[in-house]
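Interim report, section 4.2 (structural modelling).
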Amino acid sequence: MSIAFRTIRELGADIRAGRLSPVALAEECMQRLDTVGRKLNAVVTLTRERALKQARRAEEELKAGRDRGPLHGIPYGAKDLLATSGGIPTTWGAAPFKDRRFDFDATVIERLEQAGAVLLAKLAMVEFAGGMGYRQPNASFTGPGISPWAPDAWSGGSSSGSGSAVGAGCVPFAIGSETWGSILGPSTYCSITGLRPTYGRVSRHGAMALCWTLDKLGPMALTADDCGLVLDAIAGADPRDPTTSNRSYRYDGGAARQFRFAVVRGTVDATEPGVRDAVAAALDTLKSIGSIEEITLPERPYEPMARIILWAEGASAAEQMIESGAIAGLTAPEDRVTPYARDVILAKDYLRALRLRGVVAREIDGVLRRFDAIVGPSRGTAGPRLGAEFRSAIRGSFPDPLGAIGNAAGLPAVGVPCGLTPDGMPVGLQLMGRAWEENTLLAAARAWQARTDFHRRRPPLS
Amino acid sequence: MSLPEAEILFALVRHRYADRLDAAQLEEVRKTVEGLVRDLAALRAAEIPDDAEPAQPFIPFRADRYPQGGTPREGHASEHRVSHDP
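Predicted structure of the assembly:
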């Protein structure tokens, strides 16, 4: 039986029942990554030696009765901005760093190892996590990420390989990062489930810094339930990342209930027609698991606020790259140029954006106090074609108030598949909640996935 | 049409980096600066209470507050992320 498209729960049950060997599972997934994954430009480095060592250890431990939990023996891939030891390159998707190696593991990699998960690959990403201002898919030294749903469609970014590797059934889960849209975007275009945790929930020690006050790491998987299992393993305080919270997290896969949803007026209509129709239909279905109330938000410059924070911090985080001229070695022509423009952001304007963020965070929390989640489109557009410029909130060419608010305020969101456009491209629904309410969002997403089959539909390549 | 502020700010970028950018690249920078200036105008027009403080994390550092120990690098907030040195 093929292991492709099987969930963490399913694989774990087979491993514990003796029907599946972690070593055989790792081998088969690596084979699929090396064939299907490479066709999608999803893979930077297969970590074969480390994978087989971890898989053999998992097999021996489970045989000996030492069970590390739901991820024990489960393979995964990591976005290539997470430091890994053992001579494995960590490239950030950028040609100037294609041979770079670190001598330590990022905290997330460490925690997954402690949970018994098996690292199979460093997965492709947009160079510098999109922080240089790319506006078309060919912005990585490994080539444009390709969606499993169409050979000429982009996988989304910047967690491109994480999206397409999971979406093509190469690995049951992957780790991605989101500064603004980089988990929910590829999760949408690859028709998988992605979880953006609350800022401070997951340590970023060992992760490339794009924007210190916006960067977050999170799981991308086939189901909301699997995202919860992974978050349980990677969440928690870390003295090496002082922004992490001391709030403990345990995934609660509790019973379904009726939810209270809000939809922000205008957010659905602002999307492309194919996306709008799928999301509108999804909202109808969502009524089977809860109430939906249309709301309005205060008039605020949400996207400009988030962009100024992102560009100002990004200019500082990448200062060495920019000032040295090393960005000339990047793949996307616009990435070699756009960063120079960010010198013009004055400190007072950056601080104004940070002050407004505090106001927005309080306002949105006041709104969310009445609801379990604000729901809306994960992305306003369907996956763009390779070679075409795409419209993007980060570039200021498409509205994304939920993305701007959620990321600037550090709020969690889960993105789930919710349909296809008329030409067969995936559409996603996001559920955004109060800070630290991942379990509420995951419960709603599980209820959604219990009533729909979008997350079980397979791309044409399979 | 360029905004006056955009022209001034673009001149700053050109002063710093023109030696490494060709005409087409400079035009790309100009357009990006104009977009930034539009964002800045929207941001400056937003009403913010006088007592609104910047929402950013800062944690005073003390080595003995990190009971899990670790290397000196691990203990310093300014060095907890991976740097961008090429």
